[in-house]
Amino acid sequence: MAAERTPERPRVRLGQALDQPRVRRPKLWPEYDPEAFGRLSERIARFLGTGRFIVWMTFAIIAWVTWNVSAPDGLRFDEYPFIFLTLMLSLQASYAAPLILLAQNRQADRDRVNLEQDRAQNERSIADTEYLTREIAALRMGLGEVATRDWLRSELEDLVRELEERGAVFPQAGSARSDEGDR
């Protein structure tokens, strides 16, 4: 006889509670909230697109150049070709471009969601309008078959004329009352 195989059970360490989730091991990379990072990038991109940023950047560059031209030789930190200034502006541009692109992508995603919601709302509105149009048409058709007060009056007048022509006598309203009073 072959030995029956039993399914392997997960190994449990001593002191580990089975009804509690395992404690995760620390990861090498720090975790971050992509939504918070996206909001921060949008705030930075909005600031980079303002006149205030241009004024501050212009003021910083003028101060940088003025200091490195007019300060004593020992206090200058970036001589005439201003290589360090060029490096700083390149660094700022290399961070600004991806942040602006990230903000644009997030805006495009929001626009896409809004467009889909608008499209769905328009489809519902069109369906509602078509339904109401069909209902109004059905009501018009139904009203065509309903007898109106004016039509009933004209039909009754025609019947009264026809009966009068045949010689039927209708008691007058006043004469019927006088007959009742005589009785």
From TrEMBL:
Pfam family, one: DUF1003
The keyword Membrane belongs to this UniProt entry's keyword annotation: yes
UniProt entry keywords in alphabetical sequence: Membrane, Transmembrane, Transmembrane helix
Transmembrane segments: 53-70, 82-102
InterPro entries reported in the protein's UniProt record: DUF1003
Domain of life: Bacteria
Name by which UniProt lists this protein: DUF1003 domain-containing protein
Lineage, top ranks: Bacteria, Bacillati, Actinomycetota, Actinomycetes, Kitasatosporales
